[in-house]
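Submission checklist for the structure archive. All mandatory fields must be present; incomplete records are returned to the submitter.

[x] Identifier: DNA-binding protein
[x] Organism: Clostridium sulfidigenes
[x] Residue count: 278
[x] Sequence attached
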Amino acid sequence: MIELGKINTLKVSRSCEFGYYLDAEGKTTSEDILIPKGNIVGEIDVEDEVDVFVYRDSKDRPIATMKPVEAQVGELAYLKVVDKTGIGYFISIGIERDVLVPFREAPFELEVDKKYLFYLYVDKTNRIAATTRVDRYLHDTTHYNVGEEVEGVVYGKHSNGNLVVAIDNTFRGIILKSECYDDISIGDKINARVKKYFDDGKIQITTRKPRLEEMGELEEIILSYLKKNQGSMRFNDKSSPDDIKKYFKASKNAFKRSLGALMKKGLIEQDENGTRLK
């Protein structure tokens, strides 16, 4: 049985002037699938068995290609949005026929030329389609160690500001709003650390570095900010958490620790008006 949107191993049954036909094991040869010359990689001949990706062309006919694809039906993949139309978005999977993402399958606005995490499926019209509603296809795990570095893609944002992340395109992770000190958007690929496990199985991750490493980096950021502003700034350890997050991408506690470390090193001084280089 031919699986649309997947790699199939098919036998070359006959040639024609514009390519070859592959045996679809139907009742008649009219069900055989064309592989156009432009979709052939290397050389093939009648009776060969070839691995091909099967999809539908613009006239809704099944067609095959030996060209590599970025995703198959039933898979999660990080893919680029290439167009927005009146019926939805289109994404590229590496072949000449782009895949539709209906508006109902994109609960947030997608940007053309940006990548997001998608799940590919076959819709009711027997065409390949995609969705950004990927949570149901992810899993919980205790596979990672606390403190371990992981890579993920942000696939959603809760109303409370928490970000949900697909770790290795497979497992559910979450970044709490209180841990979001970087400008992170849906679709961004991030590096993070495992912080803890929740009772429901989700993994809490953070983009913040370990405390000592974070302090060292933040100290450099503070010194650089001061040097760019004639050696002084209005921020001190009494500044609001929102201002600190906006200008330094850090928590107030981390900011206070870094100011304290710089004062101990004799590099800065502060009062009620702000902070200055010594």
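[x] Structure attached
Curator remark: The chain has four domains: 7-65, 76-135, 138-206, 211-277. The mean pLDDT is 90.
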